[in-house]
Write a structure and sequence with these properties.
about 375 residues; alpha+beta; Butyryl-Coa Dehydrogenase, subunit A, domain 1; Butyryl-CoA Dehydrogenase, subunit A, domain 2; Butyryl-CoA Dehydrogenase, subunit A, domain 3; four-stranded mixed β-sheet; four-stranded antiparallel β-sheet; 12 helices; 10 strands; AcylCoA_DH/ox_N_sf; acyl-CoA dehydrogenase activity; AcylCo_DH/oxidase_C; Acyl-CoA_Oxase/DH_mid-dom_sf; EC 1.3.99.-
Length: about 375
């Protein structure tokens, strides 16, 4: 399959790279040290259309196909050194905006999508709980029917964008007897709803410019109109959102890997040791060669999976393989780059130690890599 970029895709890619280099990368060292989210930069990304890439233009999006969406996020990862902001955009878009676009009523789409796509609203995916990260069957958040309303109680944790979010896509158990498939319902919850509050804010190793925290729901009442999709249909909605995340979020990893590779090549050509460039030492050149191989393999997997999001029902298997391989390739590439740079690699100003810290989270979010291996094994009949 030929994945050569079309003229429109090349223009889109170049435009995003120029924007990200100029607007998003400056000041990232300081923002990372301060765990600071920039609302100003978020809104600039909204003006670029990054928070609504695949959403139809009628709802304020850019109307891109799924492969072009991945290419745009790849360009963002390449041009921007702010991995936390890139992740915040992806979490907002792929785990929240896409489900509302795919499963919302016309009223819900008109109410939320224009503001979400422009960045005027920030969304958080409220699924993970302290005792049910990858084990969604153990979810304790409950939504009990009371006439035309639902009463919801529970706490979500490790919620990316949680501390700054205006709207949440919330998953809660509505029928415990049916388990994850049939017993979980998705809701759209606005900030300021009585009973909805934000709890502890966490500090983390990487992706520091994307805030993360707890969301607390205490006797929160929602009308039936807040249901996203159908009652009991939350499981498939969440699964589809994870397919989009696993296929398109890792596209941003491709851009990061390519940027790191180029930096390593340039450094190896100019840095001298024992009278000659370190690129002439096989230990260095082979390490960089491995970085290139991982990038090209990861790109093929990502493009193939992203292109199937709109045309294939069997994307879960592809998405699991892609997420597993690309996220672990990013970790290996970041670590190899630090080794190429030596002492400079662990200095904050060069950005590689931050890229390495950021990369670790990729093996955990969107379903841990061990969970991806479980999915792959099940598809193989194991």
């Amino acid at each position: 399959m030929d994945f050569s970029l079309s003229e429109d895709q090349r223009i889109l890619r170049d435009e995003i790279i120029r924007f990200a280099r100029k607007e998003l990368s400056p000041g990232v060292v300081e923002r990372d040290e301060q765990h600071a989210f920039s609302k100003e930069l978020w809104l600039k990304c909204g003006d670029m259309g990054l928070q609504g890439l695949p959403v139809p233009q009628d709802y304020g999006g850019a109307g891109l196909d799924s492969l072009s969406t991945a290419i745009a996020l790849e360009a963002l990862g390449y041009g921007s050194a702010d991995g936390g902001l890139t992740f915040a955009i992806c979490a907002h878009l792929l785990a929240c905006v896409v489900p509302i676009w795919k499963h919302g009523t016309d009223e819900q789409k008109k109410r939320y999508l224009p503001q979400l796509c422009s960045g005027r609203m920030i969304a958080v995916n409220a699924m993970t709980e302290s005792e049910s990260g990858s084990d969604a069957f153990a979810m304790k958040t409950r939504a009990e029917r009371d006439g035309d309303e639902f009463i919801i109680n529970g706490t979500k944790t490790f919620s990316s964008n949680g501390p700054i979010a205006n709207v949440a896509v919330l998953y809660a158990r509505t029928d415990p007897s049916k388990g994850y498939l049939g017993g979980v319902t998705a809701f759209i919850v606005e900030e300021g709803t009585p009973g909805f509050s934000k709890g502890q804010v966490f500090k983390k190793m990487g992706l520091r410019t994307c805030p993360i925290g707890e969301l607390v729901f205490e006797n929160m009442r929602l009308p039936a109109s807040a249901v996203l999709g159908t009652v009991g249909g939350g499981g498939p909605i969440f699964n589809q959102s994870m397919e989009w995340e696993r296929a398109c979020l890792v596209a941003a990893h491709l851009g990061t890997m390519e940027r790191i590779l180029e930096e390593a090549v340039e450094f190896a050509r100019t840095r001298k040791s024992f009278g000659k460039p370190i690129s002439q030492y096989q230990a260095v050149s082979h390490r960089i060669a491995d970085m290139k191989v991982r990038l090209e393999a990861a790109k093929l997997l990502t493009y193939r999976t992203a292109s199937r999001l709109e045309s294939s029902k069997a994307v879960g298997f592809d998405a699991a393989i892609t997420k597993l391989f690309v996220s672990e390739s990013l970790v290996e590439t970041a670590l190899d780059a630090v080794r190429v740079f030596g002492g400079y690699g662990v200095m904050a100003e060069y950005g590689l130690e931050r890229a390495l810290r950021d990369s670790i989270a990729g093996t955990i979010y969107s379903g841990t890599n061990d969970m991806q291996r479980n999915i792959i094994a099940r598809w193989l009949g194991l």
